[in-house]
Design goal:
Blueprint lengths: L1 H14 L4 H24 L4 H12 L2 H12 L4 H19 L6 H20 L6 H19 L7 H26 L1 H19 L12 H7 L1 H20 L3 H23 L5 H25 L1
Helix pairs in contact: 1-2, 1-4, 2-3, 5-6, 5-7, 5-11, 6-7, 7-8, 7-9, 8-9, 9-11, 9-12, 9-13, 11-12, 12-13
Length: 297
């Protein structure tokens, strides 16, 4: 019974992408049900081996059970949905009100983001954490990109010291997130998609750091707000929807909205390297979703 049940439960737990405590509790309950069914069949004259196999067959596919249980537990409350969308709405508000250029407002928003990310990480990584975690990582990653634009002779500082450290932290957090669910990794990476996409529209190197970069960015403020609002709406849909395939569809909508917004704002006048960076950013966000969609099939 132990070998058959362990294999069955391992398949069940691998397919059930929900909070670890809930998953372990569900697995324990399923194991108890298997034990009861096995004892019942043994009392009817079957051997332990035959009863074990028959009990497992009676339950059906562990993947199907996991899918049904996922839909039972996957839907978050409206409170969780709004809390998850809040960081996107805060950034959209900063650009809509022109306060993104106010160092005090930006600093307060960043401090709130750091506090919420640390609090959520220590509280067992609830689902609302992952959007906040994306904004928590964003300044670190953006700084690494800007360091690459340092004058010749100084770039080695970024290459040898800062970037390896950033990569280590970034990969560690992404792995921890993906270990729970690849969809959460996409949810976390979403703010970076928007940021890198709009940064690519400013140019590269000296163009990116030119004195008029703020003016150029403000020119596209309306479309930037649209991008973050779309991200907030998709996040709410992701939290509230039950079927996993609909969650995947919800997260695939923002990249298309952002792509349309960038092309419209630039009137299609995007440099070749910017197209590469834009497509890379979209791919980095979509790959986890593609992996989940493939697994779902």
């Amino acid at each position: 019974m132990v070998n058959h049940a362990s294999h069955y439960l391992n398949r069940f737990k691998a397919s059930l992408k929900i909070d670890q405590k809930i998953r372990d509790g569900a697995a324990a309950e399923l194991y108890a049900h298997l034990e009861d069914k096995t004892r019942e069949l043994e009392e009817k004259g079957l051997s332990r081996e035959e009863a074990s196999k028959a009990a497992i067959r009676s339950l059906g596919s562990p993947e199907l059970i996991a899918e049904q249980m996922y839909e039972t537990h996957a839907q978050g409350s409206w409170k969780e949905a709004i809390f998850s969308a809040l960081p996107h709405l805060l950034v959209a508000l900063l650009f809509a009100s022109y306060y993104w250029r106010n160092i005090t407002c930006v600093s307060l928003t960043l401090a709130l983001t750091v506090a919420m990310a640390i609090y959520g990480w220590q509280r067992g990584k609830p689902i609302w954490l992952f959007p906040w975690l994306g904004y928590y990582l964003m300044p670190v990653v953006v700084t690494a990109i800007l360091l690459l634009s340092l004058p010749e002779g100084w770039g080695w500082i970024a290459a040898l010291i800062y970037i390896p450290m950033v990569l280590f932290v970034f990969i560690h957090i992404v792995r921890q997130t993906a270990r729970r669910d690849w969809l959460y990794a996409s949810l976390m990476l979403a703010p970076m998609l928007v940021t890198f996409t709009w940064l690519s529209s400013l140019g590269r190197g000296n163009q990116l750091l030119a004195s008029d970069w703020a003016v150029r960015l403000q020119t596209n403020a309306v479309w930037i707000v649209v991008s973050f609002v779309a991200l907030a709406a998709a996040t709410v849909a992701f939290i509230r929807l039950k079927p996993r395939k609909y969650k995947i569809i919800a997260l695939l909508i923002p990249p298309l909205v952002i792509l349309f917004a960038v092309i419209t704002a630039s009137r299609g006048n995007i440099a070749y390297w910017s197209w590469l960076l834009l497509l890379f950013s979209l791919s980095a966000f979509a790959i986890p979703l593609w992996m989940q969609a493939k697994a779902y099939q």
